Amino acid sequence: MKDLILVIAKALVDHPDDVRVRVVEHDASVTYELSVNPADVGKIIGKQGRIAKSIRTVVTSAAVKESKRVNVEIVS
User: Fold this and answer.
1) What's the CATH code, domain 2-75?
2) Does pTM surpass 0.85?
3) What strands, in cross-sheet order, belong to the sheet with 69-75?
4) pLDDT of the chain along its 76 residues, tens only?
5) 35 pairs with which residues across the strands?
6) 12, 43 in Cβ contact below 8 A?
């Protein structure tokens, strides 16, 4: 899942070397904290949050096999 988020995020930003994903595991869920270069935050969020919502949808769909809930947070 972490690799999927990295591939998507690196394709969208101007500074792919600054893309980082941190995994925070809880009892019933896993949170992926995506951090990018401050100049690229707008590209990850998109207009009205459409790109961020799409990333969350893809990751949630790919995580159906796991029995945990998956969240993606964008951290600057």
Assistant:
1) 3.30.300.20
2) yes
3) 20-25, 29-35, 69-75
4) 999 999 999 999 999 999 999 999 988 899 999 999 999 999 999 999 999 999 999 999 988 887 789 999 999 7
5) 20, 75
6) yes
